[in-house]
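Need the bound structure for glutamine, inputs here:
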Amino acid sequence: MEYALGNVFGLDTFLLRCWLWSRYSRFTGSVMSSIVSGSRLPHIKGSIFADLSRAAKKRGAVNLSQGFPDFAPDQRLLDALKETVSGNYHQYGLPEGSEMLRQSVARMFRNLYHVEPAPDTEVTVTAGATQAISAAVSSLIHAREEVIFFSPAFESYAPAVMLAGAVPVCVNLRPPTFDVDWEEVEDRVTPRTRMIIVNSPHNPSGRCWTADDVKRLAEIAEKYNLLVLSDEVYHNIVFEREHITAISDERLKQRSVVVGSLGKTMHVTGWRIGYAIAAAPLTNEIRKILQFNTYAAPTPLQQAMAVVLDDAAYRGLPDLFLRKRNRFIEGLRNSRFGFTPTGGGYFQLVDYSAISELSDTEFSAHLMETHGVAALPVSGFGPQYAQARLLRFCFAKKEKTLDAATTILRNI
Ligand code: GLN
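Answer from helper R.:
Posting the output first, comments after.
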């Protein structure tokens, strides 16, 4: 199986895109030439998350691949949804999102990080964090500009950049620490560089920014006048250190878009509600794109979330997920899998090099087919990691699910 992104890594990305285009358009030639004048994303074959969840369902496997909880959300949220459904919340909302929900998000940032984005001009509700990412890129990036991102990377970053006609420039993070080499980042900046996409806690490694990372990012962004897209969807789930939001740094505040996910915060990823926080001039541009995209996110879901998004909804998340992480890694102790406990988010990387020399997609297919456990190959986040022999397991699951998986994994 081959996933996403081709190889935009370390090569001249424009040439690479031409190569990918010529290669893949040949496969699909006959139909494409008559109906579609060349795919906008010729190397994309489908979402790795959807592919694996589909395959896991078909196989009846324990699914620790795609990142979503298998436990019920807070009863308060379900009750609030029931009330909105029987109330008057069925028509279009505002394109920028429900006022009450924008206020709740702003309050969460004040309570957790002592920053206070203005709900009216700096907070925008989106249909999931993925939409916030694509809207931020398409509204702020022009054709032929360059956008630096770090690999392994969430699957939507590079396609969002390519759809804007811009060039994704990849900086590879090295296992096992996945630390950022800021000198390398600075070396990759050119006169065309316009944005850096960062992600903390990092998916898939769980690495969380240090204060020094934020300082170095701020220095580079300021020196070269760059925008920052800060994907902080797991900000509520950090174990060892405090999360640092990009907008807590004065230099980054005016040039950053912080993306978050209420689906992740409230255990309802299928509700597709996320947000973008950015200074007013940036927010203004992002909203222009959103209103012509979905117009507005679903009204009743926003209303229910706005009622329930308070301290009680997120203060307990680090403990909840730390218990789950620990349950998962304890279950793996006496197995042949290796790991360093993850620092944040809800994924644990696991090294299978003591078990197999297969590539990660082959090993993940073997694990699913032979043993009935679905995990995500890290090469889905960057094909250059295919031989790193790392799989990503989502531990945002019931104890029963985690135990079922680790019982199998211990015997491999
Ligand atoms: N962020 C989640 C993951 O990494 C999934 C997101 C999605 O499926 N769109 O698994």
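Comments: Residues 346 and 395 are 6 Å apart (CA to CA). The longest helix spans residues 317-332.
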